[in-house]
Write a structure and sequence with these properties.
It contains eleven helices and 15 strands. By secondary structure, the chain is an alpha/beta fold.
Length: 351
């Protein structure tokens, strides 16, 4: 099982600058490498404080220069917002720059305001992604692209930097035919468990399995990648502040699915929603707090969901950068070794 650090690069407070957020991200990734993480992911979002990173491939390029071992990747390239001919060339270039350390996350996107601002019909996003995926796979494996589709037409063209294979593939999306295609290609399928206990995430796993079965694929074809929010601290006040930050983040994530997210300029408002978890519930059930408790909850995830990849997000709290780095170090020294022991055990799925 691989364990990666996820970097959303949110502006959690109005007084944070993009330069500070990006600088802290670089520090976190370098620390994660020294702690023994396997990889690091970088998000793509546009036009809100939810993320100051519109280009995860640029982040991969920068971090490839200051790391030596970590696998690096976009989680995800929102492919309908990009011309795939440019993506295929940049991915090939990044494989060369990084020494073949790239992971490739692709997704359809889910935020209406991003599609509207780019002038791209959101209802076409699955079909656009499929054509873009064709072009990327063709260019990375053959070194040439020639394509005639509804959304893209590319005259025969060589790709100068191509690795001869698609990097390890991860898909974020819910369309069954996309899930089936990724599984047939040996790719991993992302679900966002977020703050949920493992039992509450089982329906998300079952939805993936149902899609694979519908496509004639065995359940063994599922390689499950889980997005999880975690924070390690022994300080009760800091733990509560982390829970408050988690709730703000959950609210923001949900509101981004609205036609027009509520924001002041680019800064997202924290809008309560029906059925949201309480701070006390998060303190009891979310993996925030002492290392032993975080390890216990992640062990529960492992035995219930059987992930092959964890993408762990620790940047939601709004705490100062030194405290976030301290949490990451505590995770790496106290929790990560326990997870490594779990990954050596036989997989045990819930019935």
């Amino acid at each position: 099982m691989d364990i990666a650090l996820f970097n959303l690069m949110s502006q959690n407070r109005p007084d944070e600058t993009p330069a500070e957020i990006l600088g802290t991200t670089v520090a976190k990734v370098r620390l994660a490498e020294s702690l023994g993480f396997d990889g690091a992911w970088f998000a793509e979002h546009h036009f809100t404080s939810h993320s100051v990173c519109p280009s995860p491939l640029m982040m991969v390029s920068h971090l490839a220069a200051v790391t030596t071992r970590l696998r690096l990747g976009p989680a995800v390239v929102v492919l309908p917002l990009h011309h795939p001919l440019r993506v295929v060339q940049e991915v090939g270039m990044l494989q060369a720059l990084s020494g073949n350390r790239l992971m490739l996350g692709l997704g359809t996107g889910h935020q209406p305001h991003e599609f509207r601002t780019y002038g791209i019909p959101m209802e076409e996003r699955t079909a656009i992604l499929e054509e873009g995926w064709d072009i990327i796979a063709q260019g990375l494996t053959t070194g040439r692209v020639g394509y005639a589709g509804k959304h893209f037409t590319v005259p025969d063209a060589p790709v100068a930097a191509f690795p001869g294979a698609v990097p390890p593939l991860f898909l974020a999306g819910g369309e069954p035919r996309l899930l089936q295609r990724a599984a047939r290609a040996g790719g991993s399928l992302f679900i966002s468990q977020g703050h949920r206990r493992a039992a509450a995430a089982l329906p998300l796993r079952e939805k993936l399995l149902a899609a694979l079965r519908a496509g004639g694929l065995p359940e063994s074809a599922l390689k499950l990648a889980i997005q999880r929010y975690v924070f390690v601290t022994d300080d009760p006040a800091e733990r509560r502040q982390a829970a408050e930050g988690m709730l703000r983040f959950i609210r923001t994530t949900l509101s981004l699915r609205e036609e027009e997210p509520q924001r002041d300029g680019a800064f997202m408002r924290s809008i309560p929603f029906a059925g949201e978890p309480s701070i006390d519930w998060l303190l009891e059930n979310a993996p925030i707090g002492p290392a032993a408790r975080v390890a216990e909850l992640l062990a529960e995830d492992f035995h219930t969901l059987s992930p092959s990849h964890w993408s762990l997000y620790m940047g939601f709290t709004g705490l100062p950068a030194p405290r976030v780095l301290a949490s990451l170090e505590a995770f790496g020294t106290k929790v990560l070794p326990a997870l490594r022991r779990l990954s050596a055990e036989p997989a045990r799925l819930a019935s």
